[in-house]
Every structure is written in C-alpha cells, then in structure tokens.
C-alpha cells in the first residue's frame, strides 16, 4: 500500500473491512491487458477490480472533495410509491460515502423506510426530523452515524404524518426544512432527502431546501403517469420559492433487459426528456430488494451485485456532471403544458 495517495489507502482499507479483495492493476496481469484501453477511453487515473465489478475512481474528484465541503442537497422525489426513491436515497448516499464524500440522508417520509434501511428500528427513534421541523431540537444533536463510514442519517418517525397538518398555519411553512438543512449543510458534501410519495407540504419543504431534484422512474406500465404533475410542482417551487432548484436528472429504475416493456419505457422516457435522463440505469436486482431487510446498504450487502455497481456509477455520473456539467441550463427548462 506504501506509495499510494492517502485517499486511496483509506478506500482500500474500507473495502477490505467488507471482505472484498481489491487488486491494483499493476499487480494483476489480467487487468494489465486492458488497462491501457480503459485508461485511454475513459481518461481515468486509477482502477480497482472488485471481484467482477470494476470501480473507476477519479482521483481529481476525491482530492477536490477532501479540500472543500460541497454541501449539495438533492431531493429524491416522485409522488408515486414504489418507484425506487428510498432505494436510491440509501444506495446513492452509500455510494457517495464510499467515495469519501461525507453524506447525510434525511428521511422525510413518515413510513421511515430509509431509517430502517440503514439499520435503525423506527420504533426506537424518539426524536426525528419532525422535531427539527418544529424547531424543538437541533438536527446536529439527533443525527445518527450509520455502519457505513461517512454516512449519517437524520431519521423519520411516524409522527411526521402530523407535521403536514401542524405546519400549515406556520409562517414560512414552506421553508422549515431549509432552516434545518442550513444548520448542517456545512458539515456534509451531500445531503440526500428521501421524500414521501406525495406532493404535500413536507415534499414542497424538501424541494425548497434543495439544490436539485432527482426523479426515479420505474420501468413499468404508466411510467410517465403523474410526472407532469411533479414537474409542474417543481416549476412552481422554482418560480415562487427556490429559483436555484435544478433538475439533477431522471433516473430509470428496476430495468429488466429481458422485458420488452422495460426497453419501451427507456425509449419513451429518453424520447420525452432527452438529456435530462441519466446515462446510468438501475437494473432490477434482487439484492437491492433484500438489502433493507438486513438494515444494510447494497454496498455492504453485496458490493459485487449489479445494484451496487449501478449506484456507484450513478454517484460517479453525478460527480462528473457537477464538475463538468454537460447539460446546459437552457436544456433543463420544463414545458409545464406537457401532458402524459
Ligand atoms: N432496482 C431494484 N431492483 C429490485 N427491487 C427494487 C429495486 N428498487 C427498489 N426495489 C424494491 O421495490 C420496492 C419499492 O422501492 P422503494 O425504493 O421503497 O420505492 P419508493 O421509496 O419510491 O416507495 C422495495 O421493496 C424495494 O426494495
Ligand atoms: Mg420510500
């Protein structure tokens, strides 16, 4: 390990803890065979081989992240249930954390699936995002460290259901989440907010507190249903409450290459939203479905699974996009008249 930059040594140690073998290219004849091609094509600085999965690590990103805290807030939103919001919040969060970006997941759904998904029993949560929104506790005092280094959680509790009604008469009722986030933003590179399946006040609060919104779309029947309404809500938030809210991208989830329907949905969504759609597509992967029942992120559960590789690639794509943005802001304008 000697002679490697400190950041890489840390990464290797971390993955070793997960009992995964990392082979450096210079030590492996197989990798040496295609190393030149991969380096040339992708312009990367360093390659790790994790059993079957290849993880490309951009040293530049790491070094930049270690020098300044980014504090980027991303809401994961879609008012449809079961499209992969929570799975994305947890595993994108974990992927950022493994790449050494300090990350916080805010569970903004009373169902508390993100909270249980990273290993905490919601029944044991006494103080949650609810009390933070009500300004009864400081978020710093209730943030939990997860089993993944660099990954923290601001948990949810079923009480959050009541918050929708309780905050309706408060002044600045759309800006309560932003006040909470502003108190902790400087401590994190990324804050990922897992929204509930609704376009209610808590989701609007999350959008107001965010720099961008990531929209998971399931490769299923009626994939585009309801998206017009969501994009309209985003547009209203942009025009009235948070002009700097950006669309991070539309993420296709639960893709099954064997199904014609899955491929049709990909084509349809790409035709409609063009370069707003992430290049990374999340495959349907049973490991992704079972990991939460162990209270584990996919990277802890099985780092070699396609789910882990997909979410690591998504993190890499977001990092690249934010460094050298390929989507011009003008291309991100939404036509609110769009009907689906
Ligand atoms: N890519 C995937 N492959 C297989 N199962 C998935 C995948 N993404 C999500 N799931 C499962 O689908 C269900 C709904 O996903 P979830 O992330 O909870 O959606 P949401 O938060 O939008 O309601 C969960 O049981 C989850 O484990
Ligand atoms: Mg959810």
Descriptive notes:
This protein is of the alpha/beta class. It has 2 domains: 6-66, no CATH class; 70-321, P-loop containing nucleotide triphosphate hydrolases (Rossmann fold), CATH 3.40.50.300. The protein has 15 helices and 10 strands. The longest helix is centred in the last third of the chain and has 18 residues, at 306-323. Bound molecules: adenosine-5'-diphosphate and magnesium ion. Magnesium ion binds next to helix 4.
CATH topology group of the largest domain = Rossmann fold
Structural class: alpha/beta
Topology, number of strands: 10
Give the CATH level 1 class of the largest domain: Alpha Beta
Bound molecules: adenosine-5'-diphosphate, magnesium ion
- Known CATH architecture of the largest domain: 3-Layer(aba) Sandwich
> Can you give the helix content as a percent range?
40-55%
Name the CATH homologous superfamily of the largest domain.
P-loop containing nucleotide triphosphate hydrolases
Order of helices and strands: HEHEEHEHEHHHEEHHEHEHEHHHH
Please state how the strands of the largest beta sheet are arranged side by side. Answer: 6-7-5-8-4-9-10
Distance between the termini: 54 Å
How much is the average pLDDT?
82
The geometry reads as: globular
Number of helices in the DSSP assignment: 15
The radius of gyration computed from the alpha-carbon positions, rounded to a whole number of angstroms, is 20 Å
The count of domains is 2
